[in-house]
């Protein structure tokens, strides 16, 4: 597969908040051949990177590490040759967002004016900043109008922001496992996660990058564990762990044990979350977690407009909203409300609901369910063969009534 990866110097950048940094570096990866019409931008989720698909650069040794340090390509079951976003057909670009820590400038990056890491001096970022940076990065790569913008979770909010900010620049939108805004329960959990980071004495107001300093790993671990529970579902947790004990030697040594711990089991579910947290603190920056969750919490599609429909009104392309029944972070009901916003704006739209127990991360781990509707939407729009819509009237085709129609019918 033809692939390209690098860091673009976008020069001085003014954020939506009005603050500027003298130089914004943006890490990107691109796969496939650009023919002028076939560019697909993939927007990554909260802790993702530009490394969306497996790739080997022509001049790269076989054991080379990907840009930005995230070891696994996070959507390699969906993006690649012959996959749903087929890199033999599309020129796929993924850009690491500002505020993150995978090659694009963020709080852990060096401020050229001081020679120190930005830390808490990094400006607050918004989803709008991500979209504006992606536009500039695409300009630098020579890409004008996009065939599609696709993304899941907060990456789906980023997709929606494209419709609002650059409605003429994109033909098809696929916001997946997302919503026009977070609900208060998710806002609450994100706030607790941020507090966990700030409560870690090593956080030190955001200045912990010195050689003689330790990062706030315990706070970040807790924050991720809270987040990770949001990405699972009751059913997936029952299936994966039940109430099983993991055994005394299964880890769990990051935190001091409480007095009664020796009497009670250390459970599989605790062991899993401890393991995931440990992996996470090795790969992510605590300040980035604070900045990016703030951006996600703040996002409101209707902001500056009368309604979601009003915000989407200038977009004349087609949209595929995809949601998962087991996702309580971004529910199918929220997705249906988003779909209604598109419908009210007279956008051609389908809301494809996937029956799933996987919870929010279903969009990452169910390529067999996500791939076909996404592939067909990219090639044929909402009329694509595998695309279903909650608004279809089952009486129109009594042999093949859409499975999910009843979920949202009046
Ligand atoms: C753009 C982006 O979205 S960011 C990149 C994606 N990463 C994330 O989304 C982070 C949050 N989600 C995850 O980490 C998930 O693990 C996913 C979505 C990446 C993959 O999900 P799944 O394939 O269902 O894997 P699962 O969640 O079961 O995790 C498997 C790991 O947990 C370990 N594990 C499973 N059960 C236990 C347990 N009881 N105790 C300890 N470890 C356990 C496995 O050994 C495995 O380890 P490995 O990753 O080192 O191989
Ligand atoms: N689990 C994914 C999706 C979160 O929204 C991530 O960590 O980025």
UniProtKB/TrEMBL annotation:
Transmembrane segments: none
Keyword Kinase: no
Pfam families hit by this protein: Abhydrolase_1
One GO BP: methionine biosynthetic process
Domain AB hydrolase-1, residue spans: 38-367
Residues engaged in binding substrate: 224, 361
Protein name: Homoserine O-acetyltransferase
Catalysed reaction equations from the record: L-homoserine + acetyl-CoA = O-acetyl-L-homoserine + CoA
Enzyme class, first EC level, given as a word: transferase
Superkingdom of the organism of origin: Archaea
Cellular location(s): Cytoplasm
Catalytic machinery residues: 153, 327, 360
Subunit structure, as described in the record: Homodimer.
Pathway: Amino-acid biosynthesis; L-methionine biosynthesis via de novo pathway; O-acetyl-L-homoserine from L-homoserine: step 1/1
Entry keywords, A to Z: Acyltransferase, Amino-acid biosynthesis, Cytoplasm, Methionine biosynthesis, Transferase
Annotated spans, Disordered: 385-410
GO CC field: cytoplasm
Gene3D superfamilies: alpha/beta hydrolase (3.40.50.1820)
PANTHER family: HOMOSERINE O-ACETYLTRANSFERASE
